[in-house]
Design brief:
This protein is an alpha/beta fold. It contains 9 helices and 8 strands. The radius of gyration is 39 Å and the shape is elongated.
Amino acid sequence: MQPDWDKLGKEYADTPNVVIVQADCSGDAQQFCGEHGVQGYPTIKTIKDGRTEDYNGARSFAQLKQTVEKKLNPRPACSLESKDACSPKDRAVLEESEKMSKAERSAKIKSVEAEMKEKKETISQYEKDIKQMSAELDLIKAGGQKVEKVEQMLDDAETKAHCEGRTCVVAFLPHILDDGAKGRNERIDILDKALKKSKKDGKSIGFLWSQGGDQFEMEEAMGLQFGFPAVIAINFAKGRFGVHRGTLDAESVTQFLTSLSRGGVPLAPIPASAKVVKTDPWDGKDGQLPDEDL
């Protein structure tokens, strides 16, 4: 009955002549309970003008409220019958109305109702404006958020920041002179499809690429001498990496990540020498052979 009892207390919280209380008969209220003949729990009693009566009715909110209304005669919190319960401001409004004629009071009621209606309309408009502003604010914030994409691995600090708190897939792609811009873009597109698939599956996986040979020491330390493209999964926080032994296509990379999550990919410690060296970003163009002195 506690929820209904709490509801009853809230119902009469502002009623000056009704107090809804509960006593802990096994604690501080032992003497009080003894004086009022409490023998079992819960026991409900009404006390009015010093007289205590047992309540034996239903313990629902509706029945409890009915008993309060019938036996305790609750007064409004602020009314002509209980001005002492009014705040100074409320009492001033009440007494001003008391002095009005019926016509004056009717006109005042209509005036206040009209003002309330106007303010409600203003609030409604403000709410619409706030909703629109909130949508615009989200778009403004979104404009500053970096869209997740496949990025080139350019230096050690940026790589670790990109992969912080998650696993990253790193694809070592053929040299631009071997693949050309068209071939490289096709391979990056494959990685992008795998990235989108991982996001759709609710995974947070970073995707990076590097030109084969640009990270020679890292490639050597991780045993990627079998050629390019080569793909690894690496987690700097855990200090582990695993090598993808399949082909570079979206489905194969996705299967590699699934196997990785299930513990099906052999992992090895990241070699201490596997540092990302700073390299120049790709300009998106085909490679050019260096000029050679005749």
